[in-house]
Write a structure and sequence with these properties.
Chain lengths: 327, 373
């Protein structure tokens, strides 16, 4: 086992060719990635694509069928117990005890990690302050709203001062204000050197990560910083341009735009259409043709690819490959 | 560092909080066994008395009436009807109105007077074996007794005089026999069920998975879950024994302290069984079904109702695997027979061994879900 000193260099997580099979189904198929210390690593993918399974493999909840993984320099196969001392984990459903109060939940998790009474008290005070839990200390967890439950769960997961936290869809089902506050908190903690492994469905959250990976049907199809992903040739092929067409008649415009040669793809985004077009295409000409169809166009302007564009392009490409493989 | 009981204290304390918070569940789980005990203790009489009986007395003279009086006085039979023909006699039994039909033939008195053998037909409904057995015994012995008295009219004593004496429960009081056994069954309610539910609840909530990502070890978790319920089981036992002694007036011949002490391994087994169930069941409904699966064997193979000795060899052997069998021997031993440690320590040891085995099995099952270094 390769033990790298806990505070030394080395990545927080290194996963090499992870495989996990459930019977005949391969849920995680040759997945490799590295998460550096202090990063906020966003792990994205559709439901059922293997996100939670990867977390379970890395935290020792599920044994690997193949590959190697090191967490905080420790081998997942050999040292899962030592790993559990060093990591924190917050599951999708916040895993709190509804019939215990906020303080009791915190005390319970602190004791599980065998914190000394004095340190436990100090850590609870710190967590309560950090998460703004003071007004709710004697309230039962069942009576908290989603956002407060999530803060409490996060508090419970970090009582023992882990260097690495796994957050499985931490913002699912909570309101936008709480969501924003959680991310502010993550940035603050990350500045203190804590590494976060976060799964999410929200693209705006993905944009905030230092590093994102996208898993699709058990395979990683994108891995890098958000800006490097936007420049991938699959996303922004040579000789193409991404434009935003703002129009009050998005559906008609979309139907029409898809018939125009030179427009490679088009998708609706609210009151506008995002289209990938040949860079030889004249934007003026495009406006004229839409107007001739009776479609009012407010604006056409060049646009940088969003992460959502990235994932849509990559998913389409892989879907094509999967179908080609089947045929 | 490698403490296999890691997390025990934390889980124990948390479990006590759960129990205190959910006082209603605790209250019901403690009070319902007592209610059942009151129902069964007052309602069930294991002694068979006053069996409904129909009589076709074709003779009708003094000798035949004397015989019927003796049957009535045995307290075993209650003559509910006199019929006038064989058909009505049969019908009464088939319809279930009576379990016994007695036919005294027309020449009964005549044959007795001429020193000849007189026959009496006794029809017995065999559909309830304990009733049938009692009816056979009592009618046969009354018949024998009647014959001997006639034959021995000249001599004053029987050649062989059997004097059966019931030890420990001289009045054959039902509660004395019934309640010590029932104790074992009632305790299952607050042990197997409560522990199974307490772990399955954590599975349903997802907190168990959370615990597996912490350094808590399976043994620490399971013992932390088990001990609070051991306390509850003990409180329940105390309540049951108090009820038995003061409401049902069952005398306790042995040491109450020993009873308390030997109940601990029994509680331990049933709690471990609950934990093993929860390692298999993922929902409340599944846990419920599995827990019920343990109840019937505890009722029928423990000697609580039917003696274990009369079982076919295979099932007799099987009954050694039923924890309630040992505990019923302990309760009846201490309460009725005044048995002491010397008589019962093997039962206690067997229970403790079973409990340890089950708990280790459960811990291994939980351990499998978490790969261990």
């Amino acid at each position: 086992m390769a033990i790298v000193s806990q505070n030394g260099a080395g990545p927080a997580i290194s996963a090499e060719h992870l495989v996990r099979r459930f019977g005949k189904v391969t849920a995680v198929n040759d997945v490799s990635f590295r998460v550096e210390k202090g990063e906020i690593f966003g792990f994205l993918g559709p439901n059922g694509s293997g996100k939670t399974t990867v977390i379970k493999l890395l935290t020792g909840l599920l044994p690997l069928s193949g590959g190697d993984a090191h967490v905080e320099g420790l081998d997942v196969r050999a040292d899962s117990e030592a790993i559990r001392e060093r990591i924190g984990y917050m599951s999708q459903n916040f895993s709190l005890y509804d019939d215990l109060t906020v303080t009791e939940n915190l005390q319970f998790y602190g004791r599980i990690y065998s914190l000394e009474p004095a340190r436990l008290k100090r850590r609870i005070d710190e967590i309560v302050q950090l998460n703004g839990l003071e007004p709710y200390l004697t309230r039962l967890a069942a009576q908290l709203s989603g956002g407060w439950k999530q803060r409490l769960a996060l508090g419970c997961a970090m009582l023992h001062e882990p260097k690495l936290l796994f957050l499985d869809e931490p913002t699912a089902g909570i309101d936008p204000v709480a969501r924003r506050q959680l991310w502010d908190l993550l940035f603050e903690l990350s500045a203190h050197g804590i590494t976060f492994f976060v799964t999410t469905h929200y693209m705006d959250e993905a944009e905030r990560c230092n590093h994102v990976a996208y898993i699709y049907f058990g395979k990683i199809i994108a891995d890098g910083t958000p800006s490097s992903l936007r420049e991938l040739p699959e996303v922004q092929p040579h000789g193409t341009l991404r434009v935003e067409i703002t129009t009050p008649e998005v559906t008609r415009a979309l139907r029409f735009a898809r018939q125009i040669p030179g427009i490679r793809s088009a998708t609706i985004f609210g009151q506008s259409i995002h289209a990938l077009i040949d860079d030889t295409f004249d934007l003026h000409d495009l406006r004229e043709r839409l107007l001739k169809e009776g479609i009012a166009v407010a604006e056409i302007r060049p646009l940088a690819a969003s992460l959502e564009d990235v994932f849509v392009e990559l998913t389409n490409k892989h879907q094509g490959l999967l179908e080609a493989a089947r045929a | 560092m490698r403490n296999i009981f890691r997390g025990f204290g934390a889980v124990f304390y948390k479990e006590v909080l759960h129990v205190r918070r959910d006082f209603t569940t605790l209250f019901f789980s403690l009070i319902i066994p007592l209610l059942q005990m009151v129902l069964l203790g007052f309602g069930i009489d294991t002694n068979i008395r006053q069996i409904n009986t129909v009589v076709f007395n074709a003779d009708g003279r003094r000798e035949s009436r004397e015989l019927l009086d003796r049957l009535k006085n045995s307290d075993t039979f209650r003559i509910i009807r006199y019929v006038e023909n064989d058909r009505d006699l049969n019908d009464a039994i088939i319809a279930g109105r009576a379990h016994v039909g007695i036919k005294i033939p027309v020449d009964y008195s005549d044959r007795l007077l001429h020193q000849m053998s007189a026959q009496v037909l006794v029809l017995i409904d065999g559909s309830d074996s304990s009733v049938a057995g009692q009816a056979v015994n009592v009618t046969t012995s009354i018949g024998l007794d009647e014959s001997l008295r006639r034959v021995l009219a000249s001599r004053s004593t029987f050649a062989v005089d059997m004097r059966p004496m019931l030890l420990f429960n001289p009045d054959s009081r039902s509660p004395n026999f019934f309640l010590p056994g029932l104790t074992a069954i009632l305790l299952l309610n607050v042990t197997t069920f409560l522990t199974a539910f307490s772990i399955v609840r954590e599975k349903e909530r997802g907190t168990l998975e959370q615990l597996f990502v912490t350094p808590v070890r399976p043994m620490g978790l399971l013992l932390g879950k088990l001990l609070p319920y051991l306390g509850i089981g003990f409180v329940e036992l105390t309540a049951i024994v108090t009820f038995m002694r003061f409401v049902f007036k069952v005398p306790i011949h042995g040491s109450v302290l020993l009873l308390g002490l030997l109940s601990l391994p029994y509680l331990f087994v049933s709690l471990s069984l609950g934990i093993l169930i929860s390692s298999k069941a993922n929902t409340h409904a599944q846990a419920m079904q599995l827990a019920f699966l343990t109840i019937l064997p505890s009722v029928f193979f423990s000697g609580y109702i039917f003696p274990r000795e009369t079982m076919p060899p295979f099932f007799h052997a099987l009954s050694y695997l039923v924890p309630a069998a040992y505990f019923i021997n302990i309760t009846r031993g201490i309460i009725l027979r005044g048995a002491g440690v010397a008589h019962l320590w093997t039962d206690g040891l067997a229970l403790f061994a079973m409990g340890t085995f089950l708990l280790i099995m459960a811990a291994r099952r939980f351990q499998k879900k978490v790969i261990m270094a």
